[in-house]
Amino acid sequence: MKHVLTMLALVLSVSWASAETVNLNIIQVCDDGGNSCAPVNLNQSFTDKIWAQAGTTFNYGSITQLNSTKFLNPTELEADELIGSNIFSGTGRVFGSYDVWFVNSFNGAPGLRGRGAVGGDGVVVSSSSAAVDTLAHELGHNFGQDHINGTIADAGRYLMAAGSIRTIPTGIGDIAPDGLQLDYFNPILPEVTVDMVGATPFLSSDFFDVKFLAGAATDLGLSSLTIDLTPANAFFDVTNAPPGLSGSPFSFGSLHGISAADIAISGLSDGGSILKMDFAADSFTSGDSLSFGMDMDLFSNIDGFGATADELRSSLVTLTFEDGYSVAGDLSTLIFSSVFDPNKYVDVFTSRRGDPLASPVPEPSSIWLLSLGLAIIIGAFRGAKARSLE
Predict the structure, then answer these.
(1) Quick count: other Cβ atoms within 10 Å of Cβ 349?
(2) Residue partners of 208: CB distance under 8 A and separation at least 6
(3) In the chain, pLDDT over 70 holds for what percent of residues?
(4) Keyword Signal: yes or no (predicted)?
(5) Are 14 and 186 in contact (CB under 8 A)?
(6) Which of 6, 68, 304, 372 could link 327 by a cystine bridge, Cβ 3.0 to 4.6 Å?
(7) Cβ(66)–Cβ(30) under 8 Å?
């Protein structure tokens, strides 16, 4: 059962790339007749200073025009249609650049400032409601960053806080590292790996190997890990009851620096697709590791030779750290190299979007916030190799 030798690794790393230049394709949306065009305001000085924190500069290119009354005041779904369009769709896309559409406003979503793919190519900005840091924020989504948890202390000062809670700078002098240090983008990253390793998840206690690498962000622990097999059309087959008649239960393999008593498991049910592991405070930190396994099957191949690491790559993985920062994405689209690379997702299309909703902000206090990058490495015994996107 399931005799495929594959390794899949989700890697979150500590290092930044050297300075990178990112090409932007700026598209101004007008009506069908080429009139009533949405204003284009790049807020270039703000965008440049915000992303200078990560050593990233921009080539803004020239402005092109898209004549489409439909997209001049799009709904959120129509904005997603723009973001999901391909190079041949006539929406103004070009190869080798992140595509940015300026529209007049979002129909049915007053006050919404922008919409961006997470770990993919495409941003829609509302000219009528955008803040000075909206473009920088939405590009953060394109570079693979999700929203921070809105309930953490001082959340509003971070670039990847949702627009409803983010404190907007009134001048470039208040952008980090200066003044009020707004639109802060923290380059201190933990280094955690979540590997799917081995020939089969059946009768396995080490198919998943989770490591918080030594020397990485020693003052913060992992709070929870969630695996959702739904996008892969797969399920946990932990008993011999239907839908799978030949399963194996959840079991731990090795535990280093953490005990089973520190881990609360929820959501795991026979035929279900969600597993969540909550870690006790400060129990899973730098240098710790654990392995675990259980049977997993594809609904299209129950009790067959399915659920290989490669077949599970569309599963959704969510990692949350003790400061409240959480990143989630399907394994096929949230692919970050071990060094931050803002050009990783140029010409990549994904259905994942930044959620515009956010939780209320508590009383402010100082906190360090993690910025995470994700990578997928797929290989066989001849050696692992990087896997490119779709």
Answers:
(1) 18
(2) 194, 195, 196, 197, 227, 291, 292, 293
(3) 72
(4) yes
(5) no
(6) 372
(7) yes
C-alpha 67/C-alpha 41 separation (Å) is 18
SS3 of 301, please?
strand
- Length of the chain measured in residues: 390
Give residue 176's identity as a one-letter amino acid code.
A
Token pair for 159: 């670039």
Taking each helix axis from N to C end, the angle separating 44-52 and 134-142, rounded to the nearest 10 degrees, works out to: 50
Distance of CA 363 to the CA centre of its chain: 27
Give the chain's count of helices (H) and strands (E): 4, 22
Contact 89, 50 (CB under 8 A): no
Q: How far is CA 119 from the centre of its chain?
A: 6
Among 385, 11, 328, smallest CA distance to 193 is for: 11
Tell me, what amino acid is at 297? D
pLDDT (tens digit per residue) in 175-229:
988 999 899 875 445 566 666 655 556 667 767 788 887 655 456 788 898 889 9
The SS3 of residue 134 is helix
Pairing of strands 98-103, 123-126: parallel
Count the helix, strand and coil residues of the chain and give each as a percent rounded to the nearest 5: 10, 30, 60
- Helix, strand or coil, per DSSP, at residue 387: coil
Select from 264, 244, 171, 252 the least CA-distant residue to 205.
Answer: 252
